[in-house]
Amino acid sequence: MTFSTSIVEIIQRRYSCRKYEIQLLDNKTKRFLKEFLQGDSTSPLEGETRFELIEMSELNPKVKRQLGTYGFIQGAQNFVVGATKKSEHDLENFGYIMEELVLYATDLGLGTCWVGGTLKRSRFAAQINITDDEVVPAITPVGYAAKSQSKVDRVARWAARSKNRHPWQTLFFEVDCDHPLTRERADQYETPLEMIRLAPSASNRQPWRIIKENDTHTYHFFIIRKRSWYSRFLSWPDFPRVDLGIAICHFNLTAQELGLKGDWDFLRPSITIPPHLEYYISWISE
Ligand SMILES: Cc1cc2nc3c(=O)[nH]c(=O)nc-3n(C[C@H](O)[C@H](O)[C@H](O)COP(=O)(O)O)c2cc1C
Which ligand 1 atom is the nearest neighbour of the CA of 200? Predict the structure, then answer.
């Protein structure tokens, strides 16, 4: 996969866009997106995913009404619906691949917004005829961002505290969770880690924690879970796993761009794993 400019720049440019011009994508852009959706992904994770670009104008009025504004999204005329077959790494792999698409669309000058909570999932799932062994974790509108964002968008961003990101010392550690990793100690991995910090996540929770091994550039990726009082009332997919896939995508693409070589592995880390963290994967640099 090729981007027209630096992935670091694209990641910095991306934001969740919730108001779009009422304008169809031009044919060339649609072709680029469709080619991308059919192409190979750089995901190091296993799973089977498929994505479809859907145009509102092709849907009958009843279906259009049923899909509604899917929560906070206004004006979008196209959206991408993705499905993944249920498997061990399904949600992380989905997160990775859908984020590649989001970054690719950003590179094309389009707005996007991960939507996983505020949508009628089954109605979108019906658009791509999902089977019993598939799930639709999220969708994204793709379109031209409206010049001015709506009040609703401002409220959504405020509610999710979208601009805020946790500081380095609460996300990245060395050896154990008692020792925050400094930018200096991360050395050439400072930028890939910073790109994780800027990644989108459901409700802007940023549920990733990363522990570097002492004196090597081995990074262990974990999920930290925070149960909100309302989570037991929701039947949402396990979003922290999707978020982790997005984080792995930002890290991997940035490392590739910087020429940092390494491999992903599901080894059990030799460090003591703190009880509040769930281990997922490690990056071992060459
Ligand atoms: C898996 C996932 C699900 C999300 N679901 C929604 C959603 O249902 N509605 C919404 O408005 N935003 C949703 N978001 C967007 C987040 O709120 C947003 O990424 C976060 O607040 C950070 O803001 P930013 O993307 O502008 O950097 C979702 C993001 C992710 C990664």
Answer: 19
